[in-house]
Amino acid sequence: MSDLLIEIGCEELPAGSAVGMAEHLASALQTALTDAGLTVSAAQYFGTPRRIAAYIPNVSPQQADQAIERKGPAVASAYKDGEPTPALVGFLKNAGATLDDVSTVETPKGDRIVVKQTQAGKSLEALVNDVLPGIIKTLPVPKRMRWSDKPYEFLRPVVWLTALHGTKVLPVSVLGMQSGNITFGHRFHAPGAITLPSADAYITTLEKAYVMADIAARRARIVQQVQSVADEMGGSPVMDEALVDEVTSLVEWPVALGGRFEELYLEIPKEALIQTMQENQRYFALLDKSGALLPAFITVANLESKNPDTVIDGNERVIRPRFADTKFFWDQDKQRTLADHQASLKDVLFQEKLGSVADKTQRMATLIPLLAPVLGADEKDSATAVALCKCDLTTEIVKELAKMQGICGRYYAQRDGHNESIAAAMEEHYFPKQAGGALPSNPVAELVAIADKTDTLVGIYGQGLVPTGTKDPFALRRATLGVVRTLIEHKRDLNMAELIDASIASYAGSLGEVDRDGLLGYVADRIRGYAQDQGVSQDVVDAVLAKSASHPLDVMARMQAISAFRGEPAAASLSAAVKRIGNILKKQGIADALSVTEAAFEADDEKSLYKALQSVSPGVIKQLAARDYAEAMVSMSSLKEPVDAFFDNVMVMVDDPTVRNNRLALLQQVHGLCSDVADLSQLQIKG
């Protein structure tokens, strides 16, 4: 067995595409060869802007021969008067067999003619030629192209094809190319053709030709070089992971170089400069020890220049006009306060049926009286923050750099003399920006964030634009989860039902009939997902949400209490009893509350259960009112023994209606008390 290498060389691929394509090529090729019965080891993938490659160690050169059994006609129809019938003759001709090869086999439908043969295994060459065209068609590429007058399609024009099995060329024809043992190195450092002596020499041979085909190794070198240059320049690099990945996809031979720019640009918000460097030039920004931006950057070149200063100078010349444009926008914005932009919000569309951004902020303002007391936010500051939170959308910098929305608002609010709570709310009302991201840092910011997200949720959901599958164009899942996280993690006891009702009212009937229950169910689903991410078991989540879903903070407190109770000895017994009682009451069609008459009790065990219930109920009710769910569950646990004794020794469905109804009333009270925190019948507890 020898190692297999397939490399497709092409013109420069778009940034980021080589990794996914190479990974798919290797994975799909390994799967196809494994399914074909070849012995293969784990595949590896390599890629640069000019190539994708799959490398699979220890690949068998050919499939093993297979014994096959071909069934023919029934014995009864295979012969007539001792001679082969046309059916048998035709079968033998198709099978390439003779009468000497024939045997019979018993089947449920009678004896049949069979021919046992050996099928020669396919060669690796044949298998690769069979599967490679299909694999190439399924490569994850955004758009394919044709080149010259050729009928083939690929992301970029294909220039060469390499296929080796050990030291031997594996003859493969695909995309109009015939394979060989030739590859190509760096476009400038080693532009000529390079002969690969063997598949396992791929990485080392290319490195001698200034190509790092190993994606992980190339990425690690970029990180190491950037950090080294940053240390020399006295700063710390902003190592954005997405930027590192993109730069890795842009170079074959990374060389990090440091450049500088004029300090006058540092008066611009650092986030704007960093965004310009990252998105326009793929530069790494540098920060000092205090987190302030340094007038410097690091670029990663794709070659070792004999005159690195020339390369640095060129990059410095490129960044200056971009910074100059950003400074112009900053200077333009300085001529107006944030509040000066309020009037223009009426010209910014929020959503076609929901009006302008100005309409949105007015609706948000109606939620302040409800939210401020719960969050502990100053109402005056909150009103100011809500009024200003979207004003930076019409500033010049945000028009140019959309990701600066909120960030610019914070800088401008500080510049205009607003306090830190209001300034922070300008940026943080967009928090969290991604899963697990930071939440608003103060009550005013929390209020603006919750009001903003709730208005979006109610407005979009109210139109029936519910996210389906992975499609969520208005980011409703993220918005709702942001509200849930803020309420739970910042311990804000807010009734989501009341908030949603208030938000619906703020639309003044323009939404028509809103599916309020469906909307609350959507919020409950986000609570469900959050709880499961926190490690709460599925049955506990289901048990609690069956009883309560409108107070996220309260719901999590209940889940914590039930999770703790679930491990207690009484949990299995009480959950089984609650389920049993629920089934009895449901079967009897009992929905209204029944009254217990103590004098109607006959059995000692029902008297004991009633006495225990009367004893524990006041304490449980008090604990529930205080939301001390953990203690309430401890108190309920004391009912285990009397409940078990009742079901062991008392017949509920007796003939006497008075006794029967009294026992049903007792069970109804037990069920009601034990089901107040959660529907215990949904707990899945062994034993």
Short synopsis of the structure:
Helix content is 49%, strand content 14%.
Essential attributes:
687 residues; five-stranded antiparallel β-sheet; four-stranded antiparallel β-sheet; alpha+beta; 26 helices; flat
Walkthrough of the structure:
- The chain has 687 residues and is α+β, with helices and mostly antiparallel strands.
- It has five domains: 2-62 and 123-208; 66-119, no CATH class; 215-333, no CATH class; 339-535, Hypothetical protein af1432; 558-682, Orthogonal Bundle (Isoleucyl-tRNA Synthetase, Domain 1).
- Helix content is 49%, strand content 14%.
- The strands form seven sheets. It has a five-stranded antiparallel beta sheet with strand order 2-3-1-9-10. A four-stranded antiparallel beta sheet has the order 15-17-18-16, with helices on both faces. A three-stranded antiparallel beta sheet has the order 4-8-7.
- A hairpin with a 2-residue loop joins strand 5 and strand 6.
- Helix 10 packs antiparallel against helix 12 (379-388), helix 12 packs across helix 16 (443-462) and helix 16 (443-462) packs antiparallel against helix 17 (476-489).
- The longest helix is centred in the middle third of the chain and has 26 residues, at 308-333.
- The chain is flat.
- The mean pLDDT is 90.
Uncertain residue segments: none
Question: Quick one: biggest sheet?
Answer: 5 strands, antiparallel
How many domain regions? 5
Number of helices: 26
CATH class of the largest domain: Mainly Alpha
CATH topology of the largest domain: Hypothetical protein af1432
Q: What would you report as the Rg, rounded to the nearest angstrom?
A: 36 Å
What shape does the CA trace take? flat
Helical content class: 40-55%
